[in-house]
Amino acid sequence: WSDIIRLTVLNKPRPVLTVSPSWLSPGASVTLNCEVEHPSAGWSFYWYKAVPDLSEKSSSYELLPDGSGTAQDSYIIHGQTHTAGYVCRAGRGDPEYHTDHSQPKFVWSADVHSAASLTVSPDRVQHFTSDSVSLTCEGNFTEWRVRKFSEDGRLSDCRRMTGSTCDINTSKSDTGVYWCESGSGEFSSAVNITVQNDDGPILVSPVHPVTEGASVSLSCSLKTQKILSNVFFYHNDKLIQNDPRGELKISAVSKSDEGFYKCQYSGRESAQSWMSVKGEQDQNSVSFCK
Fold this sequence. Notes:
This protein is an all-beta fold and about 290 residues long.
């Protein structure tokens, strides 16, 4: 009789990809980091762009330039201007053993000049629960999906998609970053949607960046009362206006107006939302974030 040998088969390890920054700003580089669970010498790393594949309800992967078998566990992308998804995997040995692909991670742009765009109706960042919100994909494509990256890090597709429009009856779990992906592999600009409790006010502010020199109006709203008076407005936590009309109007927006805004009504504060300002010629810009 021979000795008994116990063979244990383990699942392939899956590396963790991180992307920095999460939101694009003009001129910024994007750094990808691929982390294996038990790092040691000898790993090579492979870097991919995630290309939407609507027929399979998933994505295919294309190697990035010089992204095959790098010795470094980081990869830098220069000149990225649009929303994009990335994936990595690692390998070592001869013949080379490969890990699974990482979960995709995304870098988002609020650039509304790309071939695909996303509009939100009503056009505001903050919403109450049970609000009806429509997210519509626009561009010269016939197939679309709307994707969401939630606060807890989960990626999901819109559940109620009619043509190019995603309809949401909002709940707290709908808070997240949303963008469109076309059947031709295009990504739209991305927007933040936040869903607030019904017992306090929300700040009504646009989901997309505001162009320098344009006018913009911010207001405060309750679920039961859309128009409020005697509202306090704050910019980066500094009180800037107590408006009896309940509206903050900036007639010619400048870069100094960029930042976090919130409103206060009858002693109750809204959540704060970031308002971004872009130059007239900017091809990309910082996003709105919660």
